[in-house]
User: What shape does this take?
Amino acid sequence: MKKVDVILGLQWGDEGKGKVVDVLTPRYEVVARFQGGPNAGHTLEFGGEKYVLRSIPSGIFQGGKPNVIGNGVVLDAILFRAEAEELARSGHDLTRQLFISKKAHLILPTHRVLDAAYEAAKGSAKIGTTGKGIGPTYTDKVSRNGMRVGDLLSPDFEAIYAAAKERHVKILRSLDYRYDITELEKEWFDAVEYLRRFRIVDSEYFINECLREGRSVLAEGAQGTLLDVDFGSYPFVTSSNTVCAGACTGLGVAPNRIGEVYGIFKAYCTRVGSGPFPTELFDETGAELRRVGHEFGAVTGRERRCGWLDLVALKYSIMINGVTQLIMMKSDVMNGFDTIRVATEYAIGGARTAQFPYTVTDDLQPVYTDFEGWKCDLRDCRTYEEFPAAFKRYVEFIERETGVPVKIISVGPDRGETIVRE
Ligand code: GDP
Ligand code: IMO
Ligand code: MG
Assistant: This one.
């Protein structure tokens, strides 16, 4: 019986998961998303084209293989339709290739409104959500009030919707929040009809059947470990388990069926939205990372906050996920830097720690190790051996500190700009 390999982000999202899933898909027969929803924006570039996927797994461009939207995902029918129709226009009809779990929860128009209303009510302590209704939809799931894709097949579909909406309307009234969803609601019902064209399945049976038949499955995470609802910088997190265990609950795969765990990280750090970020740079270097790395949200267009690589946080993420292979992205962004810094510890008050703390307080100061920059274009290198010595020192330091090999190094957004170490 095969195992499921998992690929997930080790920082605050946007590590480059979309690109790497696309690069790895030729090694797999099935690709599955296990959590999150259209808060994700996974970018893929090849053949001079650029695609941003939000709910659809990033394995769809490699040979018509089955791609699965698992039960752990929350699906907005309107955004899903827009995404699928755009792909169809560019020649990628997914109706036979895409399998959607009956148990995935639906994001309703009122969930989006609730997301905005809760954020508005938070005043200055806003999370900076993507506004896609993610939190309210997962809240309904856990409080056993949710609506699932499988409800589409029920004769009571409209009644289930009406009951959910009624509850939301009461909450919105209590928050004194004004909104108008007349158009959105119409669009949603049309989009829900559109969903019926796809294969709505018991995806846990589908995936386990694949494994029994010896087919290889790659599970694609969204967001990143530091946005995990349990282990992230709570409450500045998303509402799902972005960690490896989320692949078990989000696909119906037993823990002993997990194989490789690929952990993706940027050679520096970014974060979008509010919340602690120990190595954040507020100076010209931060602005340079943002400018060269095009660090603007794929979904919201918001500026991403930028800073140095944080090994305290990275080691924490590796521990929580049981990472077996590291994948380093966007090293090329630092091609022109004289000095590159990496946080190896935190100083808090008079004490030093190598653990990610329960809360990040104002007196926390990262302790840095400095590296000489490589000062050349990594995009010219096609094998690990061709990389400059200064860059190899950086990679090998990370490997020594974490105890995990860096197996893939990405030096540009294109599919081809990827160095795989055997
Ligand atoms: P994801 O959410 O983890 O899939 O990442 P995003 O797509 O939100 O953000 C990653 C961004 O970096 C995208 O614009 C990618 O095209 C781009 N990218 C990925 N890998 C590299 C790389 O190695 N170098 C550069 N310069 N850009 C990259
Ligand atoms: P990908 O998959 C980066 C952030 C939001 C906000 C917090 C909660 O592209 O890496 P939510 O809408 O989920 O309730 O927002 O999480 N966030 C992301 N940041 N990449 C993502 O996805 C994100 N998805 C959510 O900015 O701070
Ligand atoms: Mg993204």
Notes: The first helix runs from residue 17 to 24. The CA atoms of residues 374 and 390 lie 5 Å apart.
